[in-house]
Amino acid sequence: MQAVILVGGEGTRLRPLTSRQPKPVITLVDRPFLVYMLEWLRGHGVQDVILSCGFEPTRVREALGDGEQLGLKLRYVVEPEPRGTAGALKYADEQVGGLAERFLMLNGDVLTDVDVTAQIAQHEATGASGTLGLVPVDDPSAYGLVLCDGTRAVTGFLEKPAPSQLIGIDRYYISAGIYVLERSILDLIPSGENVSIERSIWPALVGEGLYGSHAESAYWMDIGTPERYLQGTFDILEGNVRTGVAELLGDSYSHVAEDVAAAGRIVPPAVVGAGSTIAAGAHVGALVVLGQNVTVGENARVERSVVLDGVTIGAGAEVVDCIVAPGAVIGDGAVLRGGAVIGDDVRVGAGNVLASGIRVFPDTDLPPGAIKF
Ligand code: GDD
Ligand code: MG
What we know:
- The protein is α/β, with parallel strands linked by helices.
- The chain folds into two domains: 2-225, Spore Coat Polysaccharide Biosynthesis Protein SpsA, Chain A (Alpha-Beta Complex); 253-366, 3 Solenoid (UDP N-Acetylglucosamine Acyltransferase, domain 1).
- 18% of the residues lie in helices and 31% in strands.
- It is built from seven helices and 33 strands.
- The strands form seven sheets. A seven-stranded mixed sheet has the order 5-4-1-6-11-8-12, with helices on both faces. It has a seven-stranded parallel sheet with strand order 14-17-20-23-26-29-32, covered by helices on one side.
- A hairpin with a 5-residue loop joins strand 9 (144-148) and strand 10.
- Helix 3 crosses helix 5.
- The termini are far apart.
- The mean pLDDT is 95.
- The structure holds guanosine-5'-diphosphate-alpha-D-mannose and magnesium ion.
- Residues 6-9, 52-54, 79, 82-85, 88, 107-110, 143-144, 159, 174-175, 177, 198, 222, 224 line the site of guanosine-5'-diphosphate-alpha-D-mannose.
C-alpha cells in the first residue's frame, strides 16, 4: 500500500518547539514524531511513503533518510510554494509520475493507532471513491466536522465549524486526517493551484461516493499544540496509545538508560535518556521524559514534563507541566509550571517564575529574578 503524508505546515502553534525543528521530527518521548506514524502505517501494510513537504525538508531527510532503517521506502516531494492540502496531493502525483490506483493520504501530525486495515476493508466493501477515518470528540470546532447517514455515506463536511453550525449534541465525529482514496479523486483537483481538500474537495464529494469509517475506541490526537504534545507524551508513557515505546517501557512503565547516574528518585512512568544525571534529593516523575545528557540538580523537582537533550536544571528548581527544548539552562530555584514552553538554548536565571502557558523563544537570556508570573 502507498501512502502520502502531508508535512508542509509550519507548525506555528507549536512554537518555540518548532522554531528550530520542523514539526514532523520534533522529539516525542524518544523518537522523531513522524516515526510513530511510519511504524503505525507499516503495521497496516504500508511500504511506500511519499512525504509532501512545503519547503526543503533538510532536517526531516537527516532524521529519516530513505526509510530503510524503518523498513519502508520513503520519498520526498517539495512544493515550489504551499499548495494547500489538495494541491499538495496533486503535486505529489505529478512529481512521482502517478500515485497508485488506491492509496492512503494522511495529515502529518496525528498520533494514533486507528485500525487502517479495517478502514481499507470498509472502503472496498462500499466501493467508495474516498473513505475518511472519523473519530469522536466533544468539541469539533478546531477540526473538520463530518455528518454521515446510516450507510456511513457522508452527508455533510464542515471545516472548522462556527458555534452556530453545531447542532448541540455531546459527541461529534471529526475527520481524523486519515483517508483511503481512489485515483479518480485527483481529477477533481486543478493542477498548479493552492486548493484545500477540506474546503473544496470533500464538500464536492458529498453524495458522490464519500464515506466515513468510524473508529470508536482507537487512540487519536493531533499533536499540533503544546498542550496536546504533552498529553500525547503522557498517553505514550501510560500505554494509552499502542506504540513501540510501550515495548521499551515494559511492565515497569519506565526506561532509564544504562549509564544514567541517579542519586535522586525516579517515579514511573518515566523515560530517562543516556548520559543524564539526577542529583541527590531530586525527584523526577511521574510522567516525565528526560532526553539525553540532561542534568537535574540537587533537590530539584521535575513532574509531568518533557525536558529535551542537553538541558540543565539547577538545584531546587521546579519544572511541572512544562516543555523544555534542547540546550536550555534553568537556574537554581527557578519555577516553571502551568504549561510553560522554554525554547532551545534559553537561559532562565535563578529565581524566575514562569507559568500560564508562557512561551520563551530560542536563545533568550532571562536575568535572575526577571519574571515572577
Ligand atoms: N505539503 C503541504 N502543503 N502540506 C500542508 C499544507 C500545504 O500547503 N498545508 C497544510 N499541510 C499539512 C500540515 O503539515 C498537516 O500535517 C496537515 O496538512 C493538516 O494541516 P493542519 O494545519 O494541521 O490542519 P488542522 O489540524 O487545522 O486541520 C486538519 O486536520 C484535522 C485533524 O487533525 C483538517 O484536515 C481537519 O479536517 C481535520 O479534522
Ligand atoms: Mg493539524
